[in-house]
Write a structure and sequence with these properties.
The complex is a heterodimer of chains A (436) and B (358). Chain A is an alpha/beta fold and 436 residues long. Chain A has helices at residues 37-49, 81-89, 108-121, 136-139, 150-168, 212-221, 232-244, 270-284, 287-298, 332-346, 350-357, 367-379, 398-410, 423-427; strands at residues 12-16, 54-57, 65-66, 69-70, 96-102, 126-131, 180-183, 188-191, 204-208, 224-228, 257-262, 264-266, 323-324, 363-365, 385-388. In chain A, α7 links the parallel β10 (224-228) and β11. In chain A, α9 packs across α11 (350-357). The N and C termini of chain A lie far apart (45 Å). Chain B has one domain (10-116, 186-342): Luciferase-like domain (TIM Barrel, Alpha-Beta Barrel). An eight-stranded parallel β-barrel of chain B has the order 1-2-3-4-9-10-11-13, surrounded by seven helices. A two-stranded antiparallel ribbon of chain B has the order 5-6. A two-stranded antiparallel sheet of chain B has the order 7-8. The longest helix of chain B has 20 residues, at 123-142. Classes of the chains: A alpha/beta (436), B alpha/beta (358).
Chain lengths: 436, 358
């Protein structure tokens, strides 16, 4: 058999460790530890078996609180990302290792050094998902404390990434260290970096977020954008918008990969897949979680309401401090009206309405149907690939790797082997030019 | 409280290398140390000289070793206490209870300029702050009780939030609200190691360290510092038997089985700028270790090889093998966690209230 040169646009795949939120189903008997290393090892090795581009860890720096108390209905707690990824580098060989690390509550010198170290220890597989934070609530855990307004968050993040790259470039490719000095709006630092240029030159930079500032930041500085999944049309519009911003930074469309986060439910028939999907949504929205979702919109204590009963007949209270550590409010009065309308229209209880209104899985169907639909999104330029978010730890990716990946390969839409050793090579990104 | 510590000998080795950034060389050294049954390996770290992030390296080593303790240096002057404790707790999770943490401070203006947040400060003030970091780390490790995760499907609760605690720590330079993002690590508290040779560091070690390192050139000198540390620990309300005092020696075993270098105390170490240096053969080193330990002036030794590969091999296959042969050092790991190797109990949780709501 001859090796075919890929003639079609190839799909990139990443695996997200099940998150610290209600999408992760912990009550299922198959659900195992969210903290034990064996869970991380299982998921990372499964993703590598499926030849995924990278394995992804999210971050949270303060436990969420609701009504002034620690939120207790969802998975709580997680390990520190970079430490887990260094350990995973020992039990994997090719897959990229991506850590979400906050640019607001870290300093460039230390983080650039930790990322360069991961890149060395993993042989060029490190990635950094840059996130920012604006809330004083999270700041209470840090020396820096305080609050950054939205605009400053992004200028600080952009300068942070630029400084990190200056540091990564401060050693020559032949291994000579040179002093650096950076003076900017947010950072005024100088000295020598302690780590030689790493295998990728620059670890891969991921940006998560769909806002205007986020898109511009990604177009300027990121290699991958982790976005929300929506309809094919929404995806095409987002894709065109973001790729269209690259030229003014001297970058080409291939320099930034667009990867929405998606969930997949498989069944032997379309009907079976739909039934499994509905069951997962019921598990994700427990009776207690349904009341909590309502309280987050209404901004008041609704613990006396029956999740299987009707909605409150009063309007939301404008009180944004009920839930801390996550921003999901927006126009609460409009949401409340929408939910009540849905309940009236279909005769649904509180819980049924929340299940109906909350996020549906992105791709539901037989392996053949899901493979075809994934390919359509990529071929029609709504995405360059996907970050899969399983709902179960650690087995949530097994079925996709066993049943969908081979079909994508048959369609000539996904690699049949890793060609290079670095994450940049998996993503088809060029090596960064050294700026000494 | 009576001592249950049976005067076992504790041995540790540094796996520091110059200009090594690949995983394999560190893995090889840690495995070599593990084959000798050593309690732990250390890897030093500083922002002042080239080198990789030490905690990252030992995290990389964790899955490919099974018993040996892993103790990276993590500096606390320019770093965030919340991140540091989370990383150390995570090292404990990925190593299944083998993590330690050697606290150190960054005293130079050069290091301060790398961060641009604060100026250099005197070592004594920084060690005072390091004590606060050690304290808040323990509070954050305890901020999750061991049985906080309940997965109670009847009430829909993943955790019992009465078993998660804000720490509300306010120190001289920082404050932390808590709780930690990381559940309580397998050892409860990963092992805290402090070089107690000088000044305020000795006070911080007496108060917070599980293992104190002392650079001493004679058995008598080591014994004096150990006695002082134990007395000081007791004043801080600790049982002195919860503190292990190890003598740090730089070892150069390059001359094979030749006698120890003459002229420095009958084969004993001599003082150098990098601490006491032992230069001689592995057999004489075993003799020194057995003698000092027999004097009851030390709980063990932390040895830094001059030539890592060569000297660690001679240390394990020569010195350690001989000590084992003479019944002075264990031949296998009876336990699986670093605390077990050191004979240190898993600490109780300071927030746990038995039989009542907290």
């Amino acid at each position: 058999m001859t090796v075919r040169k890929p003639s079609r646009k190839q799909i990139h795949l990443a695996a997200h460790f099940p998150g610290v939120n209600s999408a992760t189903v912990w009550a299922d008997p198959r659900s195992k530890s969210q903290i034990g290393f064996s869970s991380f090892e299982h998921l990372a090795r499964t993703a590598e078996r499926g030849l995924f581009d990278f394995f992804f860890l999210a971050e949270g720096l303060r436990l969420r609180e609701h009504k002034g108390r620690i939120h207790d209905l969802d998975v709580v707690g997680r390990p520190e990302s970079l430490t887990v990824l260094n350990a995973l580098a020992a039990v994997t060989e090719r897959i990229g290792l991506a850590a979400t690390v906050n640019a607001t509550f870290n300093e460039p010198y230390e983080l650039a050094r930790r990322l360069a170290t991961l890149d060395h220890l993993s042989g060029g597989r490190a990635a950094w998902n840059v996130v920012t934070s604006s809330d004083a609530f999270t700041g209470e855990n840090f020396r820096r404390g305080g609050y950054l307004d939205r605009a400053d968050r992004y200028t600080r993040a952009a300068e942070f990434v630029a400084v990190a790259r200056e540091l990564w470039d401060s050693w020559t490719p032949d291994g000579l260290s040179r002093p650096f000095a950076h003076r900017g709006q947010h950072f005024d630092i100088a000295g020598e970096f302690t780590v030689p240029r790493s295998p990728q030159g620059h670890p891969v930079v991921i940006q998560a977020g769909d806002s205007g500032e986020g898109r511009e930041f990604a177009a300027q500085a990121a290699d991958v954008i982790f976005t929300r999944h929506g309809t094919l049309e929404d995806g095409r519009a987002f894709y065109a918008d973001v790729k269209g911003r690259l030229a003014k930074y001297g970058r080409s469309a291939d320099d930034l990969k667009i990867m929405p986060g998606v969930s997949v439910v498989l069944g032997d028939t379309a009907a079976e897949a739909q039934e499994k999907a509905a069951e997962i949504r019921r598990q994700q929205v427990s009776p207690q979680n349904a009341i909590l979702a309502l309280e987050q919109i209404w901004g008041t204590d609704l613990s006396s309401y029956d999740p299987d009963g009707p909605f409150p007949d009063f309007d939301p209270v404008p009180d944004a401090s009920l839930t801390q550590g996550r921003t999901r409010r927006g126009d609460t009065v409009a949401t409340a009206e929408k939910w009540r309308a849905l309940s009236r229209e279909k005769g649904l209880s509180i819980r049924q309405t929340v299940i109906e209104a909350s996020g549906r899985q992105s791709f539901i169907g037989t392996p053949e149907a899901v493979a075809a639909e994934l390919e359509i999104f990529v071929r029609q330029d709504a995405a360059d690939g996907f970050i899969l978010v399983p709902h179960l730890t650690p087995g949530g990716l097994d079925e996709f790797v066993d049943r969908v990946v081979p079909l994508l390969q048959e369609r000539d839409a996904f690699r049949t082997e890793y060609r290079g050793g670095t994450l940049r090579s998996h993503l088809g990104l060029s090596d960064p030019v050294w700026k000494g | 409280m009576t001592s249950s510590h049976g005067r076992g000998l504790h041995l540790a080795a540094a796996v520091d290398q110059r200009s090594a950034y690949d995983a394999d060389s560190y893995v090889a050294l840690a495995r070599l140390a593990e084959s000798g049954g050593l309690d732990f390996v250390t890897l030093d770290d500083t922002f002042a000289r080239p080198g990789p992030d030490a905690l990252a390296v030992l995290s990389r080593v964790a899955p490919v070793t099974s018993r040996i303790g892993l103790v990276p240096t993590v500096t606390v002057t320019h770093t965030e206490p919340f991140h540091v404790q989370a990383a150390v707790a995570t090292l404990d999770w990925v190593s299944r209870g083998r993590a330690g943490w050697r606290l150190d401070v960054s005293t130079t203006e050069g290091e301060a300029r790398l961060f641009g947040r604060r100026h250099a400060a005197p070592a004594d003030a920084l060690w005072e702050e390091a004590g606060e970091v050690a304290e808040v780390a323990a509070q954050l490790w305890d901020s999750w009780e061991d049985d906080a995760e309940i997965r109670d499907t009847a009430t829909g609760r993943f955790v019992d939030r009465d078993k998660l605690h804000h720490v509300d720590f306010t120190g001289s330079e920082f404050s932390v609200k808590g709780p930690s993002i990381v559940p309580r690590p397998p050892q409860g508290h990963p092992v805290r190691v402090v070089d107690a040779t000088e000044g305020q560091a000795r006070r911080t070690a007496a108060r917070y360290a599980d293992v104190a390192l002392v650079r001493a050139a004679s058995s008598a000198q080591a014994g004096a510092v150990r006695a002082e540390l134990r007395a000081s620990a007791e004043k801080f309300g600790r049982d002195p038997d919860t503190l292990r005092v190890l003598v740090s020696l730089v070892v150069d075993l390059g001359d094979g089985e030749h006698a120890a270098e003459p002229g420095h105390g009958g084969g004993g170490p001599r003082q150098t700028a990098h601490g006491p240096l032992y230069r001689g053969g592995p057999v004489d080193l075993a003799e020194l270790i057995a003698t000092w330990h027999g004097d009851r002036t030390v709980d063990g030794f932390h040895l830094t090889p001059v030539e890592p590969r060569r000297d660690l091999e001679r240390l394990v296959n020569g010195t350690v093998a001989l000590l084992q042969h003479r019944g002075r050092f264990r031949t296998f790991y009876p336990g699986s966690t670093l605390r077990e190797h050191l004979g240190l109990a898993r600490p109780a949780n300071q927030y746990a209230v038995t039989g009542a709501a907290s």
